[in-house]
Model the fold of this input.
Amino acid sequence: MAEESSDHNSIQNLKGVGPKSAASLNNLGIFTIPDAAFHLPFRYEDRSFITSISEANYQTPVLIEGEIMKSTVVFRGRRMLFSEIYDGTGRLTMRMFNFAMAQHKALEEGKMIRCFGTITPGPNGKQMIHPQYQVFEKEDSIEVEKNLTPIYPTTSGLQQNKLKKIIESSLEFCDKNNLLKEESENRQYSEYGNLLETLKFLHKPPVETNMSELIEGKHPAQQSLIKEELIAHMLCAGILKNELEGRKGPLMKDNSSYQATFLSSLPFNLTNAQKRVWEEIREDLIADVPMRRLLQGDVGSGKTLIGALAALHAKSNNWQTALLCPTEILAEQHFSSFKGWFENIGIKVCLLTGSTKSKERKLIIEDLEKGNIDILIGTHAIFQLGIKFHKLGLTIIDEQHRFGVHQRFSMLEKGGVNNQSPHQLIMTATPIPRTLAMTVYGSLETSIIDELPPGRNPVQTSSRPDSYRDRVIKRVEEVCLTGKRAYWVCTLIEDSDELEAQSAEELYKEISDSLPKLKVGLVHGRLKKDKKDSVIEKFRNGEIQLLVCTTVIEVGVDVPEATLMIIENPERLGLSQLHQLRGRVGRKANTDSHCLLLHKEPLSNLAEERIKTMESTNDGFEIAEKDLELRGAGDIYGLRQSGLMDLKIANPIRDSDLLIAAQNEALELGKNEKEFAKTLVERWIGNRVDYSDS
Ligand code: ADP
Ligand code: MG
Done:
């Protein structure tokens, strides 16, 4: 990570945050102390009153308190801990599967216990499985919460309570250091006070606050934040545009000496969408302002080729091109495509990644500076090495679907010659819904490849409940025995490599035991790169017919012969992620592919809606739009993590009713309160550049 760790505001400088928690916080998109203040709860619990056991209903979570009558550990297939609780009105059994012996000891007969959880019907009447609890002495008492209890989205290695404490101290820190307090001269922030006060309110709303309003993101306190965030993004887009004004782009005349040769060497013709998009880009390149263009196209739509045409155009005019990728695998893939296309027409392509040996690296850097290299392909991280180009005319960034966009454009401002800014093209496989593009990217030009190469049949998607599991396994066997290849994807709720690896291994065992006739392989995030590569290679050449895997295959695995995908527990994944995963099949021309969503029952309404969407469409834009629509307040965090966008709180689909007001205010502020406008951009977007280390 290239974070400003020396920065006073860095999250590592907060009391109680060590390197380990800092890493987990970074995973949540929290790098600075104010970032933590913006990490809002995704739901709340009401622990402000105690319910008697006899009156407690099933389904809604309740707080109960009583005496521990008995605690026993029993074996019924697995080890379980039962504690019986009595509160004078009724009995309740607390049941746990994962526990330490110390916990058993602490749950001592005669002590008092307070539990928060959902009551379900159990073998001995009411029970709570793995509730949150506190044990205390009979003569003591503990107070109930005065506010709604916030529940935050978190990640492995960071417990809810720890995160809560960190957020509390970040709010104090901001208070002491007068952060997040400036207000516009002309407008009151909200009825809760300035931004910081409004954030504090949302971290700890009083119990009488309307909870469903909060969940839907419609509470006035949220609305003021959302509006300000939208304004900040609109301002940022404007600032980016102003900065570019007056800058010259690298001069590239319409000189396409190599293009015809290259295109005629390809075994296919460009699709109409590719032709149209290339025309849009070519026009940008021959104009004398620097290009800032976002190229969107679904996985497999042929973006790389468009990047190649742009690089070729730059070379024809004696400019160098840099192609940056989020991962080494992708950089290697592009390198091998570009080499195949270009080497025999005398264009020099080089690869520079974290794995490049230092001797070779030195040579490449020298050659680059001398202008002996035409196209440099590498990971984002190479740009931090302070390498110099002889004449950099074009930067292409292949985002896949991982990074924000504003930062990408601004981080690359350097690198031009004589006050010229290189042309920039960002390629992304995440279709960004139009409303979002307008809000967040404002003036950014976009090109869309909305057509797949001919012969690609849309993946046929269907769903089955888990009770069909045995039948599905049989079916997979039949399909694989006809020579086809299949993925079996295992998903996990928690964001933990280790647990995920564990359940992938269990699944692998189950499947390979029940299908002795098939060669089954396994890949997950915990495998060494060599091992992973070799399994994937075997899957590619058919030695392995069924690949059990985790979502690690989401990016960069390209095996066209794989035409079937089973996704287990698809209800755990967001729509965009499901769509990305499904993109691994359906890559072979004139071949039908299938995706089967094998889900648990019962499904929540939300999960059901997601699965229906997957069954009904393959259109990435429609899916992205639906994805936003289905996300509640606080769930925006998932989008932030996936890099789909840089928004902290706003959801441009849900909050579309605020767009016009925000636009008007942005114009007003941009004109009349320039300083405050800058503050807003700094506050919501910042100048952090968040490279992935790859
Ligand atoms: P993505 O948009 O996901 O980056 P790629 O550029 O990797 O897609 O293209 C996917 C595959 O389609 C590649 O094997 C590429 O060579 C092939 N391809 C690209 N354009 C065409 C086309 N017009 N006709 C047929 N195949 C194409
Ligand atoms: Mg690609």
In short: The radius of gyration is 28 Å. The longest helix spans residues 220-244. Residues 1-6, 403-407, 688-694 have pLDDT under 50 and may be disordered. The first strand starts at residue 43 and ends at 45.
